[in-house]
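Researcher: Please predict.
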Amino acid sequence: PRSESTAEPSTKASREKIRRDKLNERFLELGAILEPGKTPKMDKSAILNDAIRVVGELRSEAKKLKDSNESLQEKIKELKAEKNELRDEKQRLKAEKESLEQQIKFLNARPSLVPHHPVIPASAFAAPQGPAAAGHKLMMPVIGYPGFPMWQFMPPSNVDTSDDPKSCPPVA
């Protein structure tokens, strides 16, 4: 009678045997997953010990990764803040550069109150040539007011200052 009752799935013993077989299969799968490449252990307590060890290692590794992730997130925030600061500084420097360029344009475009001196020809400083050179040894160019070229050559009598105290006595 027992062999007949075990064949029938509705009996309590047959359901228990199916449950144990499933558990044994799951233990074998767990053992194969814990140590791939090795022959799976048949001892259920050894498989459970290995599973507990692996779960502990995975938890510690997960904690390390979480901490690392948090530190990297903080570093990202710091770098973003620094990036924003650099962007602001770049904009400020760019505005300052444009302002300075505008000032330079304004100064170059504005006419100055005192005009630039005209270009002095090199021939003005050259010694006179020919027969006129004998009487004009001390001739020199005289620069007039800025913007008004007043070149003239002074005769030697004007350059001689030995009679100045007689003609223009010092004022006390």
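Model: The helical segments are 2-7, 12-34, 44-109, 156-159, 164-167.
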